[in-house]
Amino acid sequence: MKYVCPSCGNELKLPEITSGSNTITCSCGWSGTENQLLATAYQEHIGSEEDTTRALVNDIRQVLSEHFAVEIGRFLKRWGFMEKPTAYVLGRYLHAISVAMLAAVIKEYAKLEKERTYAN
Ligand SMILES: [Zn+2]
Questions:
Q1: How many Å from the N-terminal Cα to the C-terminal Cα in the chain?
Q2: Which residues contact 97 (CB under 8 A, 6 or more apart)?
Q3: pTM of the predicted protein model
Q4: What is the DSSP string of 69-114?
């Protein structure tokens, strides 16, 4: 995956040890955290088979499965999306929801970042 500066588009390198909150600075003057850099990269790679994207989707899916699977199942059944609840069908929906959630989060994050950049 390629990491580029959200401000100028220059390619940037992540530090060897990533914590997500390490500060990255670009020669153009932009500075931000690794996570901000990652979000920009994911935006370009969304829908691809990148490992990191998959890890993010799996992470969201884990949260959904652990805390919301029953409620989402009820919702799907109530509105006729899932006639006979099965683990397979629910799993398919949870995955699709996770992908859509990730895309929404990244999109909103990019908007917030832009607003933050202009506000400074
Ligand atoms: Zn830059």
A1: 29
A2: 64, 72
A3: 0.57
A4: HHHHHHHHHHTTS-SS--HHHHHHHHHHHHHHHHHHHHHHHHHHHH
How far is the centre of ligand 1, averaged over its atoms, from the C-alpha of 110 (Å)?
16
Nearest CA to 102 out of 66, 71, 56 is that of 56
In 3D space, the residue among 52, 54, 56, 72 whose CA is nearest the CA of residue 64 turns out to be: 72
**Residue 25: enclosing H or E segment and its boundaries?**
strand 23-25
Distance 26 CA to ligand 1 centre (A): 5
**pLDDT at residue 80 in the model:** 94
Positive or negative CA dihedral for 53, 56, 60, 65? positive
Cβ atoms of residues 46 and 106 within 8 Å: yes
Helix 51-78 / helix 87-119 crossing angle, nearest 10 deg: 120
Ligand 1 mean position, distance from CA 6 (Å): 7
Which tens digit of pLDDT belongs to each residue from 87-111?
Answer: 889 999 999 999 888 888 888 887 8
